[in-house]
Amino acid sequence: MEIQDHTLLNNLVYACVDSTQRGHEQFVQEHALGYIIAGESHLLTNQGIRIFKAGTVALVRRNQLIKSLKVPPPDGEFKAINIFLDQAFLRKYSAENKIETPAKYQGDPISVLPPDPFIKGYFDSLMPYFNRILPFKEAMAELKTREAVELLLHQNPAVKEFLFDFSEPYKIDLEAYMNNNYKFNVPIDQFAKLTGRSLAGFKRDFSRIFNTSPGNWLQQKRLSEAYYLIQKKGKKPAEIYLDIGFENLSHFYFAFKKTFGITPSAVV
């Protein structure tokens, strides 16, 4: 299946874009193994920006908030392959291979792998499928996913702590988390999961802490940040609306005027 500049084969995704493009999703739901063929990938987390250049292979852990930017090289195209390693597959693999569930993973949620000719060869072997040279069936997706896991474990057996930690986020400080992550545009239920709460528990705790609903708080927090950036930093509305968590410019203008009585362009 093709989605604009992406080719999707089950859990394998090939991206090829000729202009700088933001990622559509800001919540990483499953582990991802990625290889950048050309260009750069800029990943923004609440710990800052990390830039990955062509040739980089990295593992990204599930349950993360990340904003991504695909940056093509001069006069070229950004190209990358991602393999999503979902929990159902990993649990099955773990059971079949009698892998003991390790302690909760405490390492870097984005792990850059050292150069490895076998892993490079693995990614090269996927291109004929994306180029439609060979047909692709669901069984092949599972086979190639299994191959990826085998290669990762062969390169570094300790990666099992990354892959096979099936624990869910534990209950954390909601107020601190939301103040650090309000700019990520994700549904409320995902914020609930990431703070270790049910949706009902999240709303209840949120109301107690902030004395308002999550939706109202997020919008007001984002709009206050927008006002500051426009007035104090001289930013243009079109430069910031995506960065602070709005989906489109027209909604940003509407919400801003409703709150402050003026359009963003009228702020002085």
Secondary structure layout plus pairing:
Layout: E1 2-3, E2 6-9, E3 12-17, E4 21-22, E5 27-28, E6 31-38, E7 40-45, E8 48-53, E9 57-60, E10 64-65, E11 67-71, E12 78-85, H1 87-96, E13 110-112, H2 117-130, H3 138-155, H4 160-163, H5 174-181, H6 188-194, H7 199-210, H8 214-233, H9 237-240, H10 249-260
Antiparallel strand pairs: 1-2, 2-3, 3-12, 4-11, 5-10, 6-9, 6-12, 7-8, 7-11, 9-13
Helix pairs in contact: 2-3, 6-7, 8-10
Keywords: DNA-binding, Transcription, Transcription regulation
InterPro entries: ExsA-like_N, Homeodomain-like_sf, HTH_AraC
Domain HTH araC/xylS-type: 172-268
Number of contiguous helices: 10
- What's the arrangement of strands in the largest beta sheet? 1-2-3-12-6-9-13
- Give the integer mean of the pLDDT values: 94
CATH domain class of the largest domain: Mainly Beta
The portion of residues forming beta strands comes to: 15-25%
- The outline comes out as globular
The SSE order reads EEEEEEEEEEEEHEHHHHHHHHH
Largest sheet: 7 strands, antiparallel
How many strand elements?
13
- End-to-end separation in angstroms reads 48 Å
Rg for CA atoms: 21 Å
CATH topology assignment of the largest domain: Jelly Rolls
Structural class: alpha+beta
As a percent range, the share of helical residues equals 40-55%
Number of domains: 2
Regions with little confidence, pLDDT below 50 for 5+ residues: none
CATH architecture of the largest domain: Sandwich
Organism: Pedobacter cryoconitis
GO molecular function, one term: DNA-binding transcription factor activity
Keywords: DNA-binding, Transcription, Transcription regulation
Protein name: AraC-like DNA-binding protein
